[in-house]
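Deliverable D4.2, example record:
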Amino acid sequence: MSVSPPLTRVLADAQISFDEVVREVAVHAYEEQIVGLAVAARLAKMERFAFQQLVAERGIDLNYDVAAFEEDLQTLAFLDKEQS
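Output generated by the structure prediction step:
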């Protein structure tokens, strides 16, 4: 039975931080539509817009459908009424 080296040693050998690994998992989960943008951004410990930029830089399409667009329109209308 082999014993795996501690994760910190594996990450150090790979020259990648734990946060970078988690960010990569978040990007992959978003790309595969396992989680949405907000959850992936939180998992990656990034602001939503910064995460959106990251996935765009990687050529990953935003998972933004008509239903999400309509929900955003309703939110904007609600916020506009609140400001009036």
